[in-house]
Every structure is written in structure tokens, then in C-alpha cells.
Specification:
The protein is α+β, with helices and mostly antiparallel strands. The protein has a single domain, classed as Ribonuclease Rh, Chain A (Alpha-Beta Complex). It has 8 helices and 6 strands. Strand 4 and strand 5 form a beta hairpin.
Length: 218
């Protein structure tokens, strides 16, 4: 009767051990940097139409750039829905964030998916989100936009770099959806300093030009 070789037995044991080992879950606080995602609200309102959040898309008081989220990030990829953190947060937090995150459902969703990985409690996480938003100067052209415009993604990035000394081309990305400006994503250290993020930078919009819808009612 033939017996398996030592090499075969060793390989089989290693394979069995690998297959039985549980996958390491993302852990709160274990990440490299943040991405602040600023969403161009007029694009969301235009594309969602009647399905859009009515508060965010109120034509009498239209939003422009709003916070989509503050996302813990690895150098490649990102953690999400980290265990051991509360899934529900006080509605008061969403009310307090309305001026920069006008959708309550978005606030709750961002906490569950991203905030739970920050290692912070909900109040501190959203306080940090506000600090990150207030750090960024929005270029004047977007504050004054009253009619539909067009721009290359690189032009949008340049406008943000000029308005924010220290922000580099390799530290941000502009995303698009259906040929329209979607988000501006800016990479920040845990102390909210600008930093490079090649993986995020590579994920930017590849269109040569994109449309920039005006705020509703304009």
C-alpha cells in the first residue's frame, strides 16, 4: 500500500488550515486615511427627479456641494460596516447635520457603512465630518453657478487646488455619473491634513468633459 509523501501531507495541511481560517473582518479605527466626498447636489436632484429627497432639492433654498460622506480608507480599498459598533444613532445627529448633509437617510447609511469603521462614537464622527467639510474652500465658480456649464474633470480639480493651498492633484478625484459632475473626493489624514492617495486619484472620471447642472430653480 502506497503512503502519501511528506510534501503532499504538508501541502494538504497548509491548504486545510488556510481554508478553515476565518476571514479577518474590518476593524474600527484600523485604516490609513479619510476620503471626504463632496456631492454636487444639483446632479443628484436632476437625475433622481421625483424620487429625490424633497428637502435637499427644495427649489426655494437649493444646495450646491454637500457632504456625501467621510470615508475611512486603506491605501487600496476601504473598510466597511465594521463590527462591534452601534448600528443606530440618535436622530438628533441627523437634524444637526442638515445644513451640510440634508438627507437623514444618508446620514444613517453613512454611519452604518463608513462611520462604524472610524473608531469614533457617532457624535465625534459627525463632528469630524463637519470639521473636514469646513476645512475645504469651495471654489467661487460653483458658489455662483446659475446656469448649466461644462468643464473637464482636470479643470474642476484645478479650481479646488487653487482654492485650497496644499491640496495636490494626486490627493483628490472628480467623479461623474451619466456625463455629469457627481462628487469631488479629497483625501485627508486622520488629522485632516491634505495627503496623496494614488488609488483614489486613479478612480476619477475619465471623460474629457462633464456637464455641471445648475441648482434647481436656476
Amino acid at each position: 500500500m502506497a503512503f502519501p509523501s511528506r510534501t503532499w501531507l504538508l501541502s494538504a495541511c497548509l491548504l486545510a488550515g488556510f481554508m478553515s481560517a476565518p476571514a479577518l473582518a474590518d476593524q474600527p479605527g484600523k485604516f490609513d486615511f479619510y476620503v471626504l466626498s463632496l456631492s454636487w447636489s444639483p446632479t443628484y436632484c436632476k437625475q433622481e427627479g421625483d424620487e429625490a429627497n424633497p428637502h435637499q432639492c427644495d427649489v426655494s433654498d437649493p444646495y450646491r456641494f454637500v457632504v456625501h460622506g467621510l470615508w475611512p480608507q486603506y491605501e487600496q480599498g476601504y473598510p466597511q460596516s465594521c463590527p462591534g459598533m452601534p448600528q443606530r444613532i440618535d436622530r438628533r445627529i441627523a437634524v444637526d447635520m442638515e445644513d451640510i448633509m440634508p438627507s437623514h437617510s444618508l446620514v444613517f447609511y453613512q454611519w452604518r457603512k463608513h462611520g462604524t469603521c472610524s473608531g469614533l462614537d457617532p457624535e465625534d464622527y459627525f463632528s469630524l465630518t463637519r470639521q473636514a467639510f469646513e476645512k475645504i474652500a469651495i471654489p467661487g465658480v460653483f458658489e455662483k453657478l446659475e446656469k448649466r456649464g461644462k468643464a473637464a474633470p482636470a479643470t474642476v480639480e484645478k479650481a479646488f487646488r487653487l482654492a485650497n493651498p496644499g491640496l495636490k492633484e494626486e490627493g483628490m478625484a472628480v467623479t461623474c455619473d451619466q456625463g455629469e459632475l457627481e462628487d469631488v473626493r479629497i483625501c485627508l489624514t486622520k488629522d485632516l491634513a491634505f495627503r496623496a492617495c494614488p488609488d483614489v486619484d486613479r478612480s476619477g472620471c475619465r471623460s474629457s468633459t462633464l456637464a455641471v447642472p445648475p441648482p434647481a430653480g436656476r
